[in-house]
Design goal:
The protein is of the alpha/beta class and about 500 residues long. The protein has 17 helices and 24 strands.
Amino acid sequence: MADWSTTAAAVSNQLPSMHFIDGEWRRPLSGNLMETFDPGRAEPHAQFAAGTAEDIAEAVAAAKQAESGEWRKATPAERGRILMRAAELIRQNAERLATAEVLDSGKTLAEARGDVRGSARAFEYYAGAADKHEGKAYPLGPDYTSYSIEEPIGVTAHIVPWNYPLSTACRSIAPALAAGCTAVVKPAEQTPMTALLLAEILVQAGLPKGVCNVVTGTGIAAGAPLVSHPDVRHVTFTGSTVTGINVMKAAAQNIASVTLELGGKSPNIVLADADLELALDNVVGAIFENAGQICSAGSRLVIERSIHAEFMERLVKRARGLTIGHGLGEGVNFGAINSAEHLVKVASYVEGAKSRGVNVAAGGNAVVDPATGKGWFFEPTILDDVKWDDPVVQEEIFGPVLAVQIVDGLEEAIEAANCTDYALVAGLFTKDLSKAHRIARDVDAGQFFVNEYFAGGIETPFGGNRRSGIGREKGLLAVASYCKTKAVTIRI
C-alpha cells in the first residue's frame, strides 16, 4: 500500500486548485474552495475552486471574445494540427492523467489508463475531421449557383459527469473545437481535476487563449448559470435524465441547441445458441467495469431459460472472483463507488429488492477495501429471476447490480429488452446472424452490440432514444452538432 499511497500524494499535491479561464489559472471570485474525495479511501485528496455565476460569466465572456479572434480565422487544417498535438500531449501525460482520474473517480488504474488512451484517440480522430466537414451544392438549374456553408455554432457549454470525467469531456470538446467553436466546461464537482489538466494541455498544444475554459464547482452554483447563459449556443450534457430535462428547459429559454446523453437500463441478451464463454466475459465487463457506474452498462441480463442455470453458476463464480480495492492497488480489478451519497443510493436499491424477496445470487452488500478498511465499495451483485416491473429492472441504479430476466425464446427476449423507458444501448450474443439482424431491428436502442459489448469506438455514433437522450456524440455526426448551416444562392 505504501507505494501507491506515495504516488497518490505526489500527484494530489500537484493538482490545480483554480479555474482555467482565458488561458490562465484564476482564483474563484468568491475565494472559496471545495474538497475532492478519493473514493478508494473515502478521504479528501485535494482542493479546487468553488465556482459561481460570476466565474461562469468571465469564462463565457472569454469564450465569446475568442470566438471572433484568431480561432475563427484559423484554417480547418490548422485547427486539426492543434488537435493532433493535443492528442500527443495527452499520451505524454498519460500516467499523471490516469492517476488523477483514479483519485477523483475511484476506478481502477487499468480502467483509467484505457480512458486516457480513448481521450487521445478522440482528439486524433477529430483532428482528421477538422478539414473534411464540407457543405453541399444544390441543383437549382443553370441560372443559379446554390451551396451551403457549415459554420461554427459559437460558444458551447459542456457539462461533464463524474463516471468518465476525462473521456466524456474529450468526446464533446474535440468535435466542438474541430468545428471551430469555443468551449466552457463544467466538470462534475466529484471529479474536477482531469478537465483542468486537459485545458492546460490544450493551451500547450497551441490552442488560443479563451477557446477552452474550465470552471469547477457544483451543478447549482456553476452548472445552472452556464447552461442558461444567453451567449451559450449549444449545450452538451451527460448525466441523469431528471437533470437533463432541466438542462433542456434552461437551454430552450435562449433557443440554444442541446445534445443530451442521459440514463440507461441496457439489456444484454444471451440466446441459447451463444458462445457462453464469450458471453460470460462480456456480461461481466458490461456491468462490473467501473463498478457499474456507466450510463451504457449492461445492467439487465436477458437470458433464455434453457441455459439460465448453467450460465448463472458460472457468472456468479466470476462475480465473486473480482478483486475489490483501491484503484491504484496491485491486482485490483474492481474499484470504488464514487461517493458516499451514491453508495447509499446503490445500497438502497438492493435492500429494497431484498425486502421484496428478490433472489440475491451474488454480492448485495456495501464493503470496504480489505487492505485498508476504508473506502466506498459495493460488492459485485447479481439479482436473479427478477420480475419485469421491479424497480431494479425499470430504474437506473448506476452501480454494480445486474438484474436477470429469464425468457422463453426470441420474441420474449425482444419484449424483455424493450420493457423499460430507456433506450441507450443493447447487447446480443448469438451465433445466428438472422436472429441478430432481426433483434437489432426490433430492439429500441441508440447502439446495438452483437457478440461484443461496448463494441465500436470514437468513429461510431453514440446516444440514446426515449428517456436516454437526444442527439448523437462521437463519429462525424458529433461535428455537425456544433455547426450551423448557411445556404447561399446566387442568380447568375
